[in-house]
Write a structure and sequence with these properties.
- By secondary structure, the chain is an alpha/beta fold.
- It is 42% helix and 16% strand.
- Strand 1, helix 1 and strand 2 form a beta-alpha-beta unit.
- The longest helix is centred in the middle third of the chain and has 18 residues.
């Protein structure tokens, strides 16, 4: 009988727990599930769970129930209060009660070049060719009381303008900072922009997305693209964040 070495055991992937903001609007949770379904199709062997910080279930502690280890990633587009305070606080509370739970964490989805590709995808779907020289873009985020988050969005706008050669890319904010989206559109129209289009830097539909569409169209925007949603580029960013966190040797959140 010929001896053959036993094949090395392959460890199953560490489960991914994706944490979204949450909304009372059911379209938001549906969009999150569509996005995570893209992730599941790309990695059929990867267990994927959803958690919400507010307005929807399951909560992060509930999503971690029954797991011995997990990679927790925020489905957020900028680093601000939720990623810096809410998620770490929730994890600290969970691991205080469950000292054997091993959790690795990763950064927010943005900023990332692939998210700009997703913005261009949504504009192209609305009939706007990327980099049209005469087109002025208003890049609209939800806005934050954290100045650093708003500066991140402004930086994305500057880099996008330089990369593509739009007439301009102006950052605007639906709350907590200025300019407001409709103010940005009006300012561009007054400055002579023949065509103004709006690119929402939002993950899911809801109150902000609806208000942005309504008010910017009324102010003279020609096109308002859809939110990023379940774009393949967003799924790719999430998997990239997962791979980096899953293979990081140091466990970030433990009791």
């Amino acid at each position: 009988m010929t001896w053959r070495p036993r094949a090395a055991a392959v460890s199953p992937p560490v489960p991914l727990v994706a944490v979204a903001h949450g909304s009372r609007d059911p379209r938001a949770a549906a969009t999150v599930q569509e996005l995570l379904d893209l992730v599941r199709r790309a990695r059929p062997d990867l267990p994927v769970r959803t958690a919400y910080l507010d307005h929807a279930s399951p909560t992060l502690p509930a999503a971690l129930s029954g797991l011995t280890e997990a990679v927790v990633l925020p489905l957020l587009l900028t680093e601000a209060y939720h990623s810096r305070v809410d998620i770490p606080g929730a994890l600290a509370a969970v691991t205080a009660r469950r000292p054997l739970l091993r959790v690795r964490t990763g950064p927010t989805l943005g900023p990332h070049p692939l998210l700009v590709d997703a913005l261009e995808r949504r504009l192209a779907e609305a009939g706007v060719r990327p980099g049209e020289p005469g087109t002025a873009v208003v890049l609209v985020s939800a806005g934050s009381g954290d100045r650093r988050a708003n500066e991140t969005v402004a930086g994305i706008a500057r880099e996008w303008e330089a990369r593509r050669g739009w007439r301009s890319v102006t950052a605007a904010y639906a709350s907590a900072a200025g300019p407001a989206p409709e103010e940005a559109v009006l300012g561009l129209r007054r400055s002579g922009a023949a065509r103004v289009v709006v690119a929402p830097y939002l993950l899911a539909p809801g109150y902000f997305a609806d208000r942005i569409r309504r008010e910017t169209l009324a102010a003279g925007a020609e096109v308002v693209a859809e939110v990023l949603g379940a774009a393949p580029e967003v799924a790719a960013v999430l998997l990239e964040r997962y791979d980096l966190a899953a293979h990081r040797p140091r466990v970030l959140a433990t009791a």
